[in-house]
Amino acid sequence: ASEAKPVLIKNLPPDYIKVNSSLGNVLPKTLLIYPFQYAGKVSGVIELATLTTFSDKELQLMEMVSENIGIAFNSSQSRAILKSLLEETQVQSEELQAQQEELRQVNEELEEQAQNLKQQQEELQMTNEELEEQTRSLEMKNREVEQARYDIEQKTRQLEITSKYKSEFLANMSHELRTPLNSLLILSKELADNRPGNLSEDQKECAKIIYDSGQDLLSLINEVLDLSKVEAGKMELNIEPVELKTIADNLLREFKRSAEKKELKFSVELTGDIPEIIKTDSMRLNQVLKNLLSNALKFTEKGSIQIAMENYNKDHIVIHVKDTGIGIPEDKQLAVFEAFQQADGGTSRKYGGTGLGLSISRELAKLLRGYITLKSKVDEGSVFSLVLPVEFKEEAVPETTESTSAKKSVHAKDQTSFINYPTIKDNRDTLGKNDKVVLIIEDDLKFAEIMMKQANEKGFKCIAASTGEDGLILARKYKPTAIILDLDLPGVNGNYVLSVLKEDPSLRHIPVHIVSVNERSMKPIKEGAIEYLMKPVTKDELEEAFSRIESFVNRKMKNLLIIEDDDNSGKAMKRLIGNGDVKCFVATTGAEALKLYADLHFDCIVLDIGLPDMSGFELIHKLEKVKDILPPVIVYTGKELSREENLELEKYSESIIIKGVKSEERLLDETALFLHRAISNLPESKQHIINRLYDKEIVFTGKKILLVDDDMRNVFALSKILKERGMEVLKAENGINALDVLDKESVDLVLMDIMMPEMDGYEAMRRIRAQGKFRKLPVIALTAKAMKDDKQKCIDAGANDYITKPLDVERLLSLMRVWLSK
After folding, report:
1. What is the DSSP string of 583-636?
2. pTM to 2 decimal places
3. Higher pLDDT, 548 or 415
4. Alpha helices of 464-614 — where are they, by DSSP H?
């Protein structure tokens, strides 16, 4: 500060003017004077803002003072500066006022927004209250919907139960109706035939009317039964390859005459690109098409009826049944597919029928994985189109089987209940030593009497039983020539009776004819029944059945056709089977087999599917065309049949028995079964072979089994099972130990695990087979590995057979029986 020099006022900050403090007493009291020391003198600062209050005199005085202290102060300059400052202040004031105006407007806007927000908040609160009310209402409705859903579920269950009861009632009622109808048809036909010639023409006509009416009633019952089976889900399908041309030719042959009687043009057309064969149920397909054609014939008075088969897409075909009949109104086109509904309904209708045909056809189409569509115009005709897959896809349905032990328990429980159940008076009291005896197991006494009468006319004497239990007792006691068996019996059913008959070596040779109201099934045929007749049975069918029994009994020599391309194998089979009562013919090619089959009668065929000139599948197909009835065919091959090959064989399931025989013992047993050979008439050595197959436990007695497994739990469980059946069990925890045991002990069979420490099962089996003394030792591989090539790996390593874990004990024991019996 001491070095500071006076500064001109114009160079000072515009806010201050320096003045001498000694003059402070003459300055206006409004001035603020701040004293300070400047060069030993007192000076002061006057706020520039107050200059506006100075008079001219005061400003002059200030100029004078300024000169005394060496500061230039010019009032005019100060005024100019002050003016400039005031203008700037005014501008700033105006700007401030503008800002204040803007701020006021903003405040007003904010107030307005606040008001809006308050209003929105009030509206939101009202909305929330409405939403809460809606939520409460929705919850109430949800509870109502849930209650309604529960009620619907309950009603659905009740409907299912009602439908089930209805279907069971229909099935039972159909059964009860068909049983008396059976006798009615047979007796009315016999009266209509009037063999004694003691009826007048009117009486014969009455009998014929009764017979025809019975046939009409039978058709109705069959339709009702079909519908009940479909609705109950009990309709069985037999899927097989079906030739579309064969189906078309059969329909043309069956309906052409009926069409010609009504002077209708009837034609069948197949497009060139349609597949020759599809996989479906031929019987059900025929049933659907016959229903559609029957409708077309019924409702068409003039014009034509056409069947057209063509491709629908790459996976489906479509079969059109076109007619030029009365047509169906659009409002009734859905109704005609309902049960008991017809387009021509009402009490004044012109056309008869139950209205079940289309309903059954629609349900059968669904079972065949297809569907039916309809296009129709009144007075122009109708087109029913059946769309079917080329390849029927099976749905995985779990199978349930009744165990033998369960059957035995049922048999044991009911055996005493049905002994001496009421039956007809038969011929048991007059039986002679050389009489041909037929056992009739039938609970319909009237029908049993009819069958006995026809049997007597054919020279047979009859014994009769009304229950399966009584039937088995009579079969064991009298050893009849033939058995006629009903399936629906009091106590144990006919299926069980058949299985017991065919498992008993002393009874299995007796031919069994099934006569039942149940739909024809291949199961009894595959188990050894010789024939399956479906009630009601006509008089001609019964006569034919007794004629077959008579022919079978009188023909002591049975003919067997062996089709095998290997000469040595053919000769070996001929030696194994042939024995006085069987004459064996061997064919080495398909062509040779066809010639023999055409020239001679054969009771059974043994077929190897690998032939030089054609496959076994082709040969079966050609054999089927040579004669109406194909005898039982036993497929005898060392080849493991694939699933596709099995399916291919099953297409002939109406006339072929597929056994997949893999051993000479089983071949002898199966041919004896289907040739109905009495085991007691076989040489003792062959009796022993078959008896050993059926004495399931004796084969295990005293056998020494080596069990190789590192899991002690498996070892303990299997050892217990094997010991209970009379076997001695040796144990080894790996392949090395197994080889040591085999060196020290004589073993009948080895059960070999695959995954083991130190030496696995593959290596152990290879080393066992490397030793000559063990080349014929049966080895069954046990493994948890179940990949496609695992079985082949085991066989290549030396296993005779293979079974996967977890073990099916019955299957394991069955395999052990086969290999221990060799």
Report:
1. EEEEESSHHHHHHHHHHS--SEEEE-SB-SSSBHHHHHHHHHHHSSSPPPEEEE
2. 0.44
3. 548
4. 468-478, 494-503, 522-526, 539-554, 567-577, 590-599
